[in-house]
């Protein structure tokens, strides 16, 4: 995903100088031109991935998810209106190569899902997708998905059998999900379209890792073209720390290898998956390592704050799509227009720290980086409910 817009490890990037130049940018155009010239962005008019939640609700209470907290269930419902979507879209989508209509919640719970889909189609963003549990797919929403140019539907499924899936995805119905996806594929095929493609996501944990190969086979049977695997992110208070595969590294490596082999044999791509654990490595302490030993790529070690715009349903901007649990970096309207926040001091400081290999605490417990550096214990740290936004 990052390779579409980002280049890495350019020796001429001069991180300290580049950080100062980024801090002087006052428009998306200037920001883009600078990063093209310095080897961070590739040329092209579209360089932004906008990912935004259009609601803060979910119909499930998955055992590993913050939606299992009563405080989250009782929170005031917020739905992004079509007018609020238009205010963000007008500023960002002309620069976007990708739009994702979800950021941790269930977009099909929004009463505005279909109007927002149709509003987004006006901008002709090359890639449009959303993450869903798929249980609320109805005939009218399926028609809107096919007709509005959605290119990919990303479905979170953490089991290959009804027993495992229903136990993890509480309030879920495995058989209903399979029927919904079969209807979506049938409607797409009847329209003579290749879009939307299907992508499945599987959170690897102790209770489901033995089904990962059968999960690959299920995906192939349903016509899925891509799979993503990721490690569990544990939230404090849900009692899921023991489910992490960091405790059974050999088991994790064994099943992951078998799943990747099965996917290759069945012609299903797996663009994102964890790196294997180093089985002979000493246990890595949870405390941050000295700066010279931090296992992050240089210049930059993470590309997300340079091209990815993450917006919550109330118009708050997050540091990145993996920063759930961190305070927002600004509120659209209250803190000014989009550019004033995304090119403002908080994002500038974050980008400077990334460019100078000085990761903040947020990065040291990042679930995205944990899949790249599975032998760094701090990246698997339990997330605090008190910090969740």
| Strand percentage | 5-15%
* Structural class based on helices, strands and sheet pairing: alpha/beta
Distance between the termini: 26 Å
Rg on CA atoms, Å:
20 Å
Strand order of the largest sheet: 7-6-5-4-3-2-1-8-9-10
How can the largest sheet be summarized?
10 strands, mixed
Query: Which regions contain 5 or more consecutive residues with pLDDT less than 50?
Result: 1-13, 281-295
The 3D shape can be described as globular
Percent of residues in helices: 25-40%
Mean pLDDT across all amino acids: 88
How many helical stretches? 15
> Tally of extended strands?
10
Structure keywords:
alpha/beta
Please give the structural blueprint.
Blueprint: H1 15-23, H2 28-37, E1 48-52, H3 70-74, H4 82-92, E2 96-100, H5 113-121, E3 127-132, H6 139-147, E4 152-156, H7 162-168, H8 174-190, E5 197-204, H9 212-221, E6 226-231, H10 249-266, E7 269-272, H11 304-307, E8 308-311, E9 316-318, E10 330-331, H12 338-342, H13 345-355, H14 361-364, H15 367-372
Parallel strand pairs: 1-2, 1-8, 2-3, 3-4, 4-5, 5-6, 6-7
Antiparallel strand pairs: 8-9, 9-10
Helix pairs in contact: 1-13, 4-5, 6-8, 9-10
Structure commentary:
This protein is an alpha/beta fold. Helices cover 35% and strands 12% of the residues. The chain contains 15 helices and ten strands. The chain has helices spanning 15-23, 28-37, 70-74, 82-92, 113-121, 139-147, 162-168, 174-190, 212-221, 249-266, 304-307, 338-342, 345-355, 361-364, 367-372; strands spanning 48-52, 96-100, 127-132, 152-156, 197-204, 226-231, 269-272, 308-311, 316-318, 330-331. The protein has a ten-stranded mixed sheet. α10 links the parallel β6 and β7. α1 runs antiparallel to α13, α4 (82-92) runs parallel beside α5 and α9 runs parallel beside α10. The radius of gyration is 20 Å and the shape is globular.
